[in-house]
Amino acid sequence: MSIRTPLTLASIEPDAGLRAALALDPAGVVATVTDSGIKGRGGAGFPTGRKWALAAGAPAPDGVRYVVCNADEGEPSTFKDRVLLDELPDLVFEGMTIAAYAIGAHEGICYLRGEYVYLLDALEACLARRREAGLLGDDVLGSGFSFDVRVFLGAGAYVCGEETALIESLEGRRGEARSRPPFPVVRGYNGAPTVVNNVETFAWTAAILARGADWFAAIGTDRSTGPKLLSVSGDVQHPGIYEFPLGVPIATVLEAAGGADAKAVIVGGAAGTCVPRRDFGRAISYEDVSTGGAVIVLGPWRDLLEVAENLQWFFVNESCGQCTPCRVGSLKLLEGIRRLRRGECTRQELADLVSLGGTMQIASKCGLGQAAPNVFLSLVRSLEQEMLSHIPAGAR
Amino acid sequence: MTGIPADVLEREADLVGAIDRLVAQHGARRSSLLPILEALREQRRQISDVAMQVVADRLGLPPVEVQGVVTFYHFLGTEPTGRHVVHLCRTISCAMAGMGAIAERLENELGIRFGETTDDGLVTLAWANCIGMCDRPPAILLDRQAIGRVTPDDACELVARLRAGSSDDTVGGTPVGNWSGDRGPDPRDDDSR
């Protein structure tokens, strides 16, 4: 079973959020989402209500605005959106409809990663059912508001999870990130104001409209409200999807998943942070260890450099290549990690690699390159002794 | 049509017809480029130089723009593939769960390396980056289907079934049809690990 804890989202009454939204004016919907305190569930953590307000307020010459669901769930070891799209697609599309009403959009696009092509037929069928039921189309639930959604299939590119690369891809281009600003809420798909939110974010906004902003805001911490879905994998007895309030200590997650003996966890996937055992009291939240939901558990026997090499290779392979810090830096880091594993790296070289990682974090154009050195840097920082043990004795 | 010799178009009439049908279906807009290329790839298992030029012509784009898109995405590309494509995930959760043994078994059974296609054109073996089956590693994407918890023996059986052209939709006890995900308990849900 992929779902390991009861999901609040599965208990939300169908269409309740949409009906509640349509009873408000669009500004009232934005206010409700803002009051809930919800931040983006894809990992970047931008306040959803603020994003919607910006898109609603941005000038749209032809009155055209778009709502895009980011279902390009490519972050290694993240699979919660796959489960949501498979189990609760109605709630995701309901959230998109609510967002469209709030910002004045009439067209929605669900960007489904090519790897999830097996979900396509069921998603199309769900959309057809919703049109039939009057939940999408010309006159949503008799409100006079019109909105429809189509699914757009990606073709395999991690970087397209970055919202401006995703928009480039939708427009029929290589998925190369744009310079920001302008942000998509001002100039997005086809130059029109566009809200791009994660699958889970849309599902929670439907829940927020159904149950109220106060309900959501009472869960979690002051700055990280609401529950969060976590994708737990690696050296655990029970890999799968877990729901916890934000602010949950890493140790609590590990206990539930049967991975309490872990040496370290990587929170946030390949772009995330390695947290060593001594820091398992730290919280999963936007103000502490932030994540789109991936928790990779590394058992006591795990070779951390092997893990780092695998993840660095991933970035070498997925870098779009348009900016030098990411394209060249990722490869140099990979070579460095391999040298370290072979015991050929001196202490000075290790310092150079750390410096290179810092350069990539500030000089890369988009989030991919900025995050590409994260796991390696956090490994060196938090498990320095284990890293130094790979350095030949004379060089230490 | 500019740039494409008439005899080439005549020889490739079948391809041109397929592209024209896709353009009619999706619209002659740049934003239709990916859906057109994805469908072309699936129908013909290749996006040839001529195909890229014809698509470019129909959408009013420079051919190099189309080539740039084709070569950017993992699931497009100009090389022909076999009738089936086996994508083995090599990212961390699958790598930690024995992906290497599956890779060896697939190479041995098929007699090809990753990135190659069997001589009979049946199977292309390819790597995939994380396919989001991390709760059921190691995982394979077989054409449009995901298979989790693949054992080395499953990999052998999968190859045998592809060779036999079997329409049976199970491999090693794991449903291949639609992703088996959460449709009831998995017999190998190893809570004891």
Structural class of chain B: alpha+beta
Q: How many domain regions of chain A?
A: 3
Low-confidence stretches of chain A: none
CATH architecture of the largest domain in chain A: 3-Layer(aba) Sandwich
Radius of gyration of chain B from the CA trace?
19 Å
The ordered string of helix (H) and strand (E) elements of chain B is: HHHHHEHHEEEHEE
Mean pLDDT of chain A: 95
Residue share in helix of chain A = 40-55%
Q: What's the helical proportion of residues of chain B?
A: 40-55%
Total helical elements of chain B: 8
Q: What would you call the quaternary organization?
A: heterodimer
Biggest sheet strand order of chain A reads 6-5-11-8-9
Radius of gyration of chain A: 21 Å
Shape type of chain B: elongated
Number of strands of chain B: 6
Number of strands of chain A: 11
Can you give a write-up of this model?
The complex is a heterodimer of chains A (396) and B (193). Chain A has helices at residues 16-23, 26-36, 48-57, 80-87, 89-103, 120-132, 163-170, 199-211, 213-217, 250-257, 304-318, 324-341, 347-363, 367-371, 374-382, 384-388; strands at residues 66-71, 107-112, 148-153, 194-198, 227-234, 240-245, 248-249, 264-267, 273-276, 283-284, 294-298. By secondary structure, chain A is an alpha/beta fold. Chain A folds into 3 domains: 8-217, NADH-ubiquinone oxidoreductase 51kDa subunit (Rossmann fold, 3-Layer(aba) Sandwich), CATH 3.40.50; 227-298, Ubiquitin-like (UB roll), CATH 3.10.20; 308-395, de novo design (two linked rop proteins). In chain A, the strands form 3 sheets. A 5-stranded mixed β-sheet of chain A has the order 6-5-11-8-9. In chain A, strands 3-2-1-4 form a 4-stranded parallel β-sheet, with helices on both faces. A two-stranded antiparallel sheet of chain A has the order 7-10. In chain A, strand 8 and strand 9 form a beta hairpin. Chain A starts with 15 loop residues before the first helix and ends in an 8-residue tail after the last helix. In chain B, the strands form 2 sheets. Chain B has a 4-stranded mixed β-sheet, with helices on one face. In chain B, strands 5-6 form a two-stranded antiparallel ribbon. In chain B, strand 3 and strand 4 (145-147) form a beta hairpin. Chain B is elongated. At the A-B interface, helix 4, strand 5 and helix 11 of A face helix 3, helix 5 and helix 6 of B.
